[in-house]
Amino acid sequence: MIFKHNYKLVGLVIASAAIASAIVFKFIYIPSLPFIKKLLVDFFIVGLAVIAFSKETIEDERILAIRTKSLSAAFLFSIIFCLCISALNFILGDFELSGHELTIVALIIYLLFFAYLKRLDGNESID
Predict the structure, then answer these.
(1) Which residue, among 127, 111, 119, 115, has the nearest Cα to 48 in the 3D structure?
(2) Which of 24, 43, 95, 108 is a plausible cystine mate for 89, CB 3.0–4.6 Å?
(3) What is the pLDDT of residues 104-117, one digit of tens each?
(4) Where are the domains of the chain?
(5) Phi-psi region of 88 (alpha: psi -120 to 50; beta: other; left: phi over 0)
């Protein structure tokens, strides 16, 4: 992984600040709002990526296996998600998926699967 364990907090702060700013800008009119929205989405992606690519406190083979399974699941889910969006576009028309949206979905799925598999693995080792 690229970042030290402490960077998870940095990523959480970046992602949370992007979400909070997006909520605030939802109620404020600013002429350059489309640019700010894109910038906030970019910051949200960076925050999620920093969280995803930060080490755990104990980084061992078990965590590496969990990361690999999570990455595989996120990739497979992203492909299925793209196919579903394509089907919706074919049926409903004018329904598009941007690269930013796909990246956010993939990172969130990765983080959710990683947390789930880590918790599942932790419960098995206790028994």
Answers:
(1) 111
(2) 95
(3) 999 999 999 999 99
(4) 1-55, 58-127
(5) alpha
- Residue pair 82/109 in contact by the 8 Å Cβ criterion: no
Query: Cα(96)–Cα(93) distance, rounded to whole angstroms?
Result: 9
- Reported as a single tens digit per residue, the pLDDT across 58-103 is 888 999 999 999 999 999 999 999 999 888 888 888 777 889 999 9
**Measured between alpha carbons, how far apart are the two ends of the chain, in Å?**
29
CB atoms within 10 A of CB 85: 16
pTM (two decimals): 0.85
Q: CA angle, corner 12, sides to 104 and 51, nearest 5?
A: 60
